[in-house]
Amino acid sequence: xxxxxxxxxxxxxxxxxxxxxxxxxxxxxxxxxxxxxxxxxxxxxxxxxxxxxxxxxxxxxxxxxxxxxxxxxxxxxxxxxxxxxxxxxxxxxxxxxxxxxxxxxxxxxx
Amino acid sequence: xxxxxxxxxxxxxxxxxxxxxxxxxxxxxxxxxxxxxxxxxxxxxxxxxxxxxxxxxxxxxxxxxxxxxxxxxxxxxxxxxxxxxxxxxxxxxxxxxxxxxxxxxxxxxxxxx
Lengths: 110, 113
Description:
The structure holds 2 protein chains of 2 kinds.
Chain A: E1 4-7, E2 10-14, E3 19-25, E4 31-37, E5 44-49, E6 55-58, E7 61-65, E8 71-76, E9 85-92, E10 99-100, E11 104-109
Chain B: E1 5-7, E2 10-13, E3 19-24, E4 31-37, E5 43-50, E6 53-56, E7 65-68, E8 75-79, E9 88-95, E10 103-104, E11 108-112
Parallel strand pairs in B: 2-11
Antiparallel strand pairs in B: 1-3, 3-8, 4-5, 4-9, 5-6, 7-8, 9-10, 9-11
């Protein structure tokens, strides 16, 4: 089956720093999504990408759909305390189920 | 403009009992997905349903687990004769169509004693 690998697994940064994480797939997708999950809550959709090469922003967040359709990255600029959480990439091909990545845990060091 | 509603938020069951988890999708959404999450892990797909039909149940164990999404009422994920290994967070998501972005509920945390 499809596998999504996210890196890094965890990040420890200081407030104000920029963050970059990525996701790679063993097969191509035609939709990439990025979600954030807070403890005890469900994932919340951050950004959706539908075309290879597409670059989309949502406030301080920017995500890109890789040209090969097998990868995507998410950048967060000028991190703030509420950015803490687990970030998941997810992909789908056609009308199939959404496959989730392994997650990147973001921690902000005071 | 309610989002995806799941209940209960927490469910405690003893081994051998049945667990019933409910999910009401967002208004206008006819596609429902169930995912399971163990601590410190990602979300694992279980089943995808569209009103009254199971579209993909490839992630759901063949024994003890079943799901339905009736014409009227919420989607139900049912786990019979629960075992300790069933303890996890179960998330429901909905979308207006297949292959579109999913909106998640807050989950049901199932604990089996």
